[in-house]
Design a protein that fits this description.
The structure is a homodimer of 87-residue chains. The first copy, chain A, is an alpha+beta fold. Chain A has two helices and three strands, in the order βαβαβ. The model of chain A has no long low-confidence stretch (mean pLDDT 95). Chains A and B meet through strand 1, helix 1, strand 2 and helix 2 of A and strand 1, helix 1, strand 2 and helix 2 of B.
């Protein structure tokens, strides 16, 4: 029997208290397109991966470690993880 | 009465057929951490914004236009949009 595969998706976002100049630039671009009803644009990172793990908890642990130690800067960024069994 | 506010989240990912060297680099980093059970790491962009719109459909239209014309490169990237009424 093969080990189950899980799909993990991690979203890393700047904390609300941190200025986001890239988001401001995109917001200006959207306004220039004529959509002045758009505001609070913020840019983050999206990371997806496949994890071979015996169960959901083990897969979540790997994704969380990767996010904490490699993908997110804990001083400036928050992260959100979703792990689902691959169909 | 004020116009309703919608939260839009847009995820932009490289098409499957496009090589993702940044994802490969992150995958190597995760392997170096000892998690060799991780593969197919791919990196994308996450964009969130607030849209003032009379209804959900109007908010989705704005988010889709921004994604198509500004945020995603239609040759290399796909995008996925979620729009929710702000609570």
């Amino acid at each position: 029997m093969s080990v189950p595969v899980y799909n993990a998706r991690i979203i890393v976002t700047l904390r609300k208290s941190i200025l986001d100049p890239q988001g401001k630039a995109v917001e200006l671009g959207i306004h220039t397109m004529g959509y002045t009803n758009v505001e609070q644009v913020r840019i983050g990172k999206f990371i997806e991966m496949q994890i071979d793990a015996p169960n959901q908890g083990a897969a979540e642990k790997v994704a969380r470690e990767a996010a904490q130690k490699l993908l997110a800067n804990p001083v400036m960024e928050d992260f959100h993880i979703v792990v689902e069994k691959a169909s």
